[in-house]
Structures are given as structure tokens and as C-alpha cells.
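To close the chapter, one final illustration. This time we ask the reader to focus less on the individual chains and more on the assembly as a whole: which components sit near each other, and how the overall shape emerges from the parts.
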Amino acid sequence: DSGVTQTPKHLITATGQRVTLRCSPRSGDLSVYWYQQSLDQGLQFLIQYYNGEERAKGNILERFSAQQFPDLHSELNLSSLELGDSALYFCASSPRTSGGYNEQFFGPGTRLTVL
Amino acid sequence: GQNIDQPTEMTATEGAIVQINCTYQTSGFNGLFWYQQHAGEAPTFLSYNVLDGLEEKGRFSSFLSRSKGYSYLLLKELQMKDSASYLCAVSPNYGQNFVFGPGTRLSVLP
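The assembled structure is written out below.
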């Protein structure tokens, strides 16, 4: 158990809908990262937050958005869902955003199925 | 741009040794990580290299050559439970997101 929690574990929805995925980082970790992993694909970085502020952006679609709240939990919002958005969404956290060793600890993931 | 390359699949026998290679070309370098991922599960940390050389951790070792943009993960005394995907990830800059390679799916046969 990495200490990172994600809810829900599974989500099934229809095309065109909007969903919110939630992540709570490890206690004391300030950085949160979101990744998408489609079937048989590598991990694709979406976005990073550090202490409430957006720090880095990857291949995140305009239909997707995220935020990190004062209590450091983060939410990833996916809207106008398409079949191709079906994937595992992982959240990871790390203690700091600058300087040296910054291992990321991954949550169990949310499996999103768009029908 | 950022590019990380790994073999797609490898097969080895229980009890054997296997070496999984990773080559990278990134805009910067602040460390290379290896993660293990079983199907449908979260990646779990295996090793970290930031200086050239070999880091050993039980049955797992990882090597780095920064000048060659090359790393390998060495798994000894393979067990069936080592069947998983192995992900190579580079941290290009301080505090930046990781760039993950496509992963190598390892199958350990009896």
C-alpha cells in the first residue's frame, strides 16, 4: 500500500458524460501527478500540481481539467467523454517538486469505461 | 523532445537472470527510475540511479551510463511472480514529471 488513495476504483459511464476522479496523496506529500494508461499502452503524463498550483502539463486534452485543493487532495475532471477515454487513470504523489530524489508513489488507479 | 526506448516483450525461465535495457534521449536528466507493474495494478518503485554505475538491491540491480543515455535492470533468480511489465522512467528536470518508456512485458516460464 503506497499511501495514495483514489476513488472510485471503477467507473462506467456513457459517451458525452462528465466524471470526476479523486486522489488523496500520501501524508506530507505536496506534489500530485495524474497519468493515463490505455490498454497495452505506456503511462502518459497528464498534469502535475504542487501545493495547490499547476506545475507541469503533459498530453492533457482540453476536455480534461484538474485541480489541487488546500487539503492537497486532487480531482481530475473528464468531460464530453469519448470511447477512447476508456483507460486506467493513476494518481501519484511525491514529497517535493524540486531538488534531487523525487520518487513518485502511485495510487491503485481508477478504471474508467466509456460505453 | 523526450524519447525512451525499451524492448516490448521478453521471456525468461524461472531461476535465470534477465537484463532489460532502456535507452533515453531527454532534454535534461535528474535521475532514472525503474518501476514494476503487474497487469491492472499500480506501478511500484524498484530502483533509482542518478550517477553512473550499478545500484544493487537484493535480486534486482540497475545500471546507468549517462554519457550513453543507457540503463538496464538486472533481475536474478527469477521467480514466477516477477512476470510483469517493467517501466523505465526519466526525470528530465528538478521536480518535473517523469517521462515513462513504453514498458517491457516480462514473462517468466517454469
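The mean pLDDT of chain B is 93. The interface with chain A takes residues 30-31, 33, 35, 40-45, 48, 50, 87, 89, 91, 94-103 of chain B (CB under 8 Å). With these observations in hand, you are ready for the problems at the end of the chapter.
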